[in-house]
Amino acid sequence: MPVDELTTETDASGSEPNPSRVNKKRRVAIEWTLIIVVAVLASFLVRTFVFQTFYIPSGSMNPTLWKGDRIIVDKLSVEFGTINIGDIVVFRAPPDVAKDCGDPVTDLVKRVIGLPGDRLHTKGNAIYVNGQPLDQKWTVWPTIGTPIPPTTVPAGHYFMMGDNHAGSCDSRVWGTVPRSDLIGKVFVRIWPLTSIKWF
Asked: Can you tell me the distance from the alpha carbon of 54 to that of 143, in angstroms, rounded to the nearest whole number?
């Protein structure tokens, strides 16, 4: 009468696999999977809520930023901080940018020169804010180009201008920017490596 034989699995050496070794491999695989998932999630959260890198596509911020520069913006400074005149900010491009500037970009970088309630105008190459000449402590290319007509910045909005005054399509053309469209303040240029700069 035939008898069924019970067999056990063996590894390549012919010996039975060590259960502790199998469990250790499984544990290592699970740990690495968790590490990768946490790293990807952390990277996503940081990029979404804290820091983000941007590429400068034009010369509108010369001589402060140059085409090809890479910058990092601090999003929390907009979410929880104060926006001041002189801050360099990245913001979502207003709808008229593509039409008025011939530029299909989705994000722009400019300098804040007018806060909510401020009254601005230009006279010659001088910018006036609330009747006083704007003290530009930063380096600019001063030829004004398109003048600023008498303008009062609406509540919750900011007036943006490129440091390359004559070569920037900015709030003089497409108007002020609501705070809700601000992405973050520029705080460091990371590329090129020879020109790293903190703002």
From this structure: 27
Q: Any alpha helices (H) in 116-186, and if so which ranges?
A: 171-174
67: annotated active-site residue: no
The model's pTM: 0.77
Q: What is the pLDDT along the chain (199 residues), one digit of tens a residue?
A: 454 444 444 455 555 556 677 777 777 777 777 677 665 655 555 555 567 999 999 999 999 999 999 999 999 989 889 999 999 999 999 988 888 888 888 899 999 999 999 999 999 999 999 999 999 999 999 999 999 999 999 999 999 999 999 999 999 999 999 999 999 999 999 999 999 999 9
Report the distance separating Cα 137 and Cα 127, nearest Å. 13
Choosing from 110, 168, 171, 185, the catalytic residue is 110
Pick the catalytic residue: 13, 43, 58, 60?
A: 60
110 given a catalytic annotation: yes
First to last CA, the chain: 90
Show me where the domains of the chain are located. Answer: 18-49, 81-185
Burial 25-49 (b: 16+ CB within 10 A, else e): eeeeeeeeeeeeeeeeeeeeeeeee
Can you say how many angstroms the Cα of residue 94 is from the centroid of all Cα atoms in its chain?
A: 16
CATH of domain 81-185: 2.10.109.10
Backbone angles phi, psi at 197, to 5 degrees: -145, 140
